[in-house]
Design brief:
3-stranded antiparallel beta sheet, alpha+beta, 40% helix, 3 helices, 5-stranded antiparallel beta sheet
Length: 221
């Protein structure tokens, strides 16, 4: 019976073949490892590029949103008044970036008044409406003297500029006033200030104004 030769008894050719086979296996392992590292490197590079693009996109989106918000804020007009306790209120925008060019002031239809218009000097004057207001108060049997600040709703349409660009704002305001005296002896109307109620669309402005005026009057029995 024949015996299997021991490794030491293997032929030189067999040893050479074994060494060549082992070397080939090692080379295959290195190639496979290299390919894996190359794939990982590509993935990392891709993720880095995507992350950089995402960050740039987020930054640009944030800048765009900030710019849009700033533009919207600049184009949103809110008026404030000075001259409380007088017969004329001087109006000016809260934002110093806005410059008023002209205004038109609408009054409740029940007062029977034409709109008052200003150019370059935004204001509200008691003389525009005091006679009609006194008569309306008398017809509604309102007190001769104010019990705190009374309110007259008006719609103010303002043409104004922001960075040289023209804009228009239509808003419902309450004009605060006080009244003293008696109907036959003569009343005195003193203006107190203005308060923004809401921004409105031009087509609906008069209807909203009249509804607010009606709501301010006492209910008929």
């Amino acid at each position: 019976m024949s015996e299997t030769p021991s490794p030491s008894e293997s032929s030189p050719q067999a040893k050479a073949e074994a060494r060549a086979s082992e070397a080939a296996a090692i080379r295959r392992r290195w190639i496979t490892l290299g390919e894996g590292l190359a794939v990982i490197a590509v993935l990392i590079s891709g993720l880095t590029l995507w992350n950089n693009w995402s960050e740039r996109s987020d930054t640009e989106a944030a800048k765009t949103a900030d710019a849009q918000h700033a533009s919207w804020s600049a184009a949103t007009l809110v008026l404030q008044a000075t001259g409380s306790g007088e017969s004329t209120l001087t109006l000016k925008p809260v934002s110093p970036a806005q410059s008023v060019q002209s205004q038109k002031v609408l009054f409740p239809s029940a007062l029977g008044l034409a709109p008052a218009e200003t150019t370059g000097e935004p204001r509200i004057e008691a003389g525009w409406f005091d006679s009609a207001l006194k008569k309306a108060r008398n017809d509604a049997k309102l007190p001769d003297d104010s019990r705190g600040d009374e309110r007259l709703p008006v719609v103010v349409t303002t043409q104004f500029l922001v960075d040289g660009e023209p804009h228009e704002d239509v808003a419902l305001y309450d004009v605060g006033y006080s009244i003293t005296g008696r109907f036959l002896g003569g009343h005195s109307v003193t203006l107190r200030g203005v308060s923004l109620v809401s921004h409105v669309k031009t087509a609906a402005a008069q209807a909203k104004l009249d509804a607010r005026w009606k709501a301010s009057l006492p209910k008929k029995p």
